[in-house]
Amino acid sequence: MKKNSTRPQGAKLHPRNPHQGRYDFPALIAASHELAAFVAKNAYGDDSIDFANPQAVKALNRALLAHFYGIKFWDTPDGYLCPPIPGRADYVHTLADLLAEKTGQIPRGDTVSGLDIGVGANAIYPMLGRASYGWQFVGSDIDPVSLQNAAHIFASNAVLKDGLETRWQKTAQHIFTGIIGPDDYFDFTLCNPPFHASAADAAAGSNRKLRNLGLSQSTRQQPKLNFAGQHNELWCVGGEARFIAQMIIESQQFATQVGWFTTLVSKSDNLPAIYRALQRVKAVDVRTLPMAQGQKQSRIVAWRFC
After folding, report:
1. Burial of 22 (0-12, 13-18, 19+ CB in 10 A)
2. Could you give the number of structural domains in the chain?
3. What pLDDT score does 199 carry?
4. Looking at the DSSP assignment, which residues form a beta bridge with residue 235?
5. Under 8 Å CB-to-CB from 168, ≥6 apart: which residues?
6. Any domain includes 46
7. Which of these, 15, 117, 118, 274, has the minimum number of CB atoms within 10 Å of its CB?
């Protein structure tokens, strides 16, 4: 078992990630005209949007998806997670590099299949993987509304056609069990686990983001921010550490049905326990792949049994 990195710590976005540098708002507005209503000069005289305004962030996401990926329709129900696209794209491109090790070339097309654990209403990872590399996805979630919306997004875009099958996880305590069938094989799994361990932790995290945006709970009545989300998107009992621990335990059961198991790990303090858990299940190859997530450094942990 080995733990290694393909990019140095401190690296910025993946070289193939198209979201480098500042947003080109004229180009984005040309791709999606609704964005124009939300763009204004910030305190530094640069074009920007109010990132505390969920409608502005949705408009930005729609413009990014239209301009870079040809995705003309995208929306999420009110109160559901509206993720920043650049960091999510980094996960997909980093994963593509991992898959390329086998032949020296990135595999593309419908023959490549992935399982997104917690696909969410936004369906961000399957969208980016389908549009960038033509991969085929199964998306699982415990929330039927999320699955319905994800399926609607794919059905509404020709570039995504037939790229996603949704599966309902009926048992919230399970990850792969009840989702991976006896005849399934996936080249990879991916996951952005619930970060927080409780609703209180999630609320505290939202308050920190408010402060980072120069806002406070007193300046806005019940703000619905771009980083808001349903409880299952933001927290679970035990948080990221417990979720990934369960994922590792269940992965052993499906060892021959998945090429690479992968998950985002936001908290570096969780890594030692993750490595110990992977040793216990006898994973033969473990990778730690650093990546950027906006202004912070994050990483993907990947493992396999074959």
Report:
1. exposed
2. 1
3. 45
4. 196
5. 140, 141, 142, 144, 147
6. no
7. 15
Q: Residue type at 130?
A: R
Q: Is residue 166 part of a domain?
A: yes
Residue 130 in domain: yes
Instruction: Residue 271: give the domain boundaries.
Output: 83-304
Cα dihedral 68, 108, 126, 243, rounded to 10, equals: -130
Task: Give average pLDDT by consecutive 10-residue segment, the chain, 306 residues.
Answer: 48 88 96 98 94 94 98 95 93 98 96 98 98 98 97 98 97 96 98 67 45 47 44 60 96 98 95 98 97 76 96
Which residue stretches of the chain are H helix? 25-31, 54-69, 85-100, 124-133, 144-155, 199-212, 231-234, 239-251, 271-280
CA atoms lying within 13 Å on the CB side of residue 109 = 3
Q: What are phi and psi of 293, to 5 degrees?
A: -130, 85
Nearest to 275 by CA among 231, 244, 251, 235: 244
Determine the Cα–Cα distance for residues 284 and 288; give it in Å rounded to an integer. 14
Q: Report in angstroms the alpha-carbon separations of 255 from 186, 251, 261.
A: 11, 6, 9
User: Which of helix, strand or coil describes residue 199?
Assistant: helix
CATH number at residue 162: 3.40.50.150
Q: What backbone phi and psi angles, to 5 degrees, belong to 304? A: -150, 165
Question: Nearest to residue 152, comparing CAs of 72, 74, 65, 82?
Answer: 74
